[in-house]
Please model this.
Amino acid sequence: MGLGLAERSRFLIPVEASAQTSPFGLPFQGPPGPDTWYIRQWYGNTRWAYRQRRALYSQGQGLHFGVDFFAPCGHPVVAIGDGSVLAVDGPYGAAPHNVLVRHPNGWVSLYGHLLARSSLRVGQRVNQGDVVGQSGAPTGADCDTHPHLHLEIRNNSLSATTNPVRLIEADWYNLTLGADNEGLQFQLDLNQPEIWQTISDQPDVRFGGALLNDYGRTAP
Amino acid sequence: MKKKTFLKLCGWLAASAGLVGCAETPVTPPTTRPETAQPATTRPENSRPTTTNPVTAETVQVPAITTQYPTTTLPQGETTTLPVSPTALPTPPVTATASPAPTAMPTPTTQSSFSPVLKPVVPASSGYYFRFTANGRMVFYGRALNGSQTGTWAMTPGNPAWTFLTPGSGNFTTDLTLAALNDKAAGTTVITELSTGKVLATLQNRSSSTIFSPDNKMIAYLLRSAQQAGPEQPQRFELWMSNPDGSQARTVWSGLEAGNLAWFQDNRRLLWTGRDSANRRSGLWVKNVAGGDNAGAYTIIESKGLTGAALSPDGQSVAYWVTLQGSEFSGVWLARSDGSQARKLPWVGGFRWADTGELLYVPVRQGRETASTLWSFNPATGQTSRLTGPDKVPLKIALDQWQVAPGGRSIVYRNADDNALWQLTFRA
Ligand SMILES: [Zn+2]
Model:
């Protein structure tokens, strides 16, 4: 379907958040590196997301609705902003363990695939940079396969996510270290090669909405 | 910008080839759009902030640039000019002071006196999957400059003509005689003779990326199995090869998490990264696929976390990543392609082989560096050279998309500030 560029690039921004350009920080202390942490999958229309559009990401309109940071199991994960703990191991995906933090600006951050249940309690206050858990792997047991933190930024009602790249102050391209894989490149709609090909031009995801990337002609 | 500085810069630029205008801000290479999040309600494409950084022409060598993209030659013989105004290419962050010299880099053993040159090659939101052919042409997918036809094009940087190759997308032989065009909807790869459009084979390979041997006589691809234990479990692959017409198709390996498939220059061996089916051995694999060799695939380097392997053009060396394996092992490595002499390199960053035998690399930026530095490492001599830096050009590569042109004198890269492809020439 030929949606126009404007419609396809909607962004969802709470009123309170719009005044502040980059209200959040990164979910790790210390610099990125090949032995510490680095970005492995962007938010949005990635090649891996296209491959998983009917499986892993079917409830997220086919897109990757967070940013993946590769890190060894056990690496400390920190809150991206001040807030209070909304949930620990709630029904929000990103198994085996997750933590959600509600921030005063209206956003909720989700830290997924954590190694173990976080020691935080629901309602507890956290400050930016406080440890919320340890990075793990989606299967829990196999830390050699895709060990990473899945970071989401959801709206107030938790019904949608937005691109963390737009809300976190960072030198984003530097955080991939120059490594490459299909999570770091975007799937191309051959009929509309202009859209969703940069790290900041990615649409919001409404959980349960229709697939956005079920392209007819596509590459690679 | 100081008036005196501007006049000096303007005169220098005007003397350079292809200069279209010389106004107070516009005539310049890629810009500084801070890589911070944009205001949430504004589409980044619609707002290209201009830099406020002063240009200190006394200490900065400003590259020669042109502000108009070249014209397009369409298959119908029609010629168009892209309506790009100089303001579409915003102003540069060419500052000597804002970008301190890197401190963590290896000591350069040579330093070029050549002033790097930046030129626009393909406009924003185009030029996908760009790579070079043997004779220096660049092949990419995008929309025609007149805004209508999409497809794969060939062009030579610096030459205004684009030649239309095919409506599809895929891999090509380096002489542009054959294409392996992917059709995701049909789940096929179509091997096509480009000059005639003749279809040699339609591979039912789930549209896997299919690569040609250097002599164009064989093809190979990694087929992701339809049945997987789960999306977050190690992914199963089979390595297939055949003749370009699809005959003599055979599986030569199966395993897990495979990638980075490449042919050796001798047309006899394949290299890739992955794990064996039992998930015990992980690393860099080689298989001799020449007729009569029934030996299995073998690992030349065994390591967990090994990815991103790139074989040197002469097939003698391989560079690769090892990640999340502790500080001693994690980083960029270089080895002989028989697995010997493996050593960790003293930098971390993106890398590409040049046909000169050098490994070009762009280290992760340190501290307050606002742009990247391009280095060269010659495995044969051990010599390291700094080719450009933030003091010379505002190199900012998006999505690790860059390729070395044949001859090793320039790279083409996707500029993080305007999403266009630019050519950076760093040698005469
Ligand atoms: Zn994720």
In short: Residues 3-15 of chain B form the longest helix (13 residues).
